[in-house]
């Protein structure tokens, strides 16, 4: 649906209407119209191109979804595996993580576990105690603590690799709970000597905790089913997600090892390894449960880190990819994958252009609106609904009941554009920031509480900007209603709800945390 604000003649005296011949489609633009419409149409066209790409990913997934990766054989002698558990200030989940890793079924003499601990709080003592406990039970487990966070997670993984004995490296972040049969299910895929990495799908321990976690689960389902599925099954590059996967050690080493000049070291290494000729496998039927962020600022931190890291990776690797002799389909998909987050600052710019552009567009007549604006808006927005609808249909028998979260998902996506735009612009300007971890609170069910726990940070000024944008779009809704432009109001409400929800919840969660901590 195109966003068109109908302006009655008596309300346009402030604006000098251009000369229009509605019957012949002739229009004589003035300088103001050109000043507004050129950036509006350029931005909308770019967003539409990325929307068409989402449709293409859905097409690739549906076309190839019946393909199933199978192991080439079974190991006659099982290989040695090192399980790496990188942590930083994870006092609430470290014991759960270590216990889950030690429950993995694999011959003990072939399984090494490393707790790679960069913590600066009481996590260090908790981790040391739980490691000592399991070492006394006969596990080959070590606690590797670094005095500094050089290289952040990538630095911890690289440091652990220098001490690792395994031929294969399984990695699990602190919020994951690997199943007992994880290695049994995955390790045989490495009997193919060309396979360098195998990625499992993320599950959701606390999906039903709140509206936020429901929306997060749908977002991740779309990524893992449609993006990973479409890319992997069609022979395009896809990325290791930093956790719930296994690497062949030689694939890491021949690709140049872990590097920490981006915030998405996993995507960086993934592209370098695949460019070096290693094959990646994605196994959607193997699910590794994880804890979703339950606090708004933690969620925004996670999303902005991913947004900034992908742009950093694009700046670092895209020139090399585009100049390579890789197939065109891989180059094109790599471009769209690594640059997709540029849509966030474009969305912010579009927000400010929307009202004047739509007023101008209406005055030009319905012909141009129907044949130019409407297709561009449909390509930009409807593709999002299709993307996530298909993922839910593929994963859940009750997928129809989950469609009720799609409007909120679109609102949250709009609301993220403020914090993610900041992250993208920092990446484009070369502004370096530290690796901001996503706090984990061990929230597994609705009865669990997080607000009185440690690790919650301040919000800064971004929530105020989000609330200001929410108020601005509320005024646009009032304006549309006053001018009887009723069909546009549901679309505008996505912006109102998205910006207001993100800003309000960010402030509310911090306020609640400070109040409870002060008791």
Short description:
By secondary structure, the protein is of the alpha/beta class. The protein is built from 17 helices and 9 strands.
Describe the protein's architecture and organization:
The chain contains 17 helices and nine strands. The protein has 519 residues and is α/β, with parallel strands linked by helices. It has a seven-stranded mixed β-sheet, sandwiched between helices. It has a two-stranded antiparallel sheet with strand order 1-2. Helix 3 (123-136) links the parallel strand 4 (111-117) and strand 5. Helix 9 runs antiparallel to helix 10, helix 9 packs parallel to helix 15 and helix 11 (343-363) crosses helix 15 (417-428). The longest helix has 34 residues, at 31-64. Mean pLDDT is 90; it is low at 1-27.
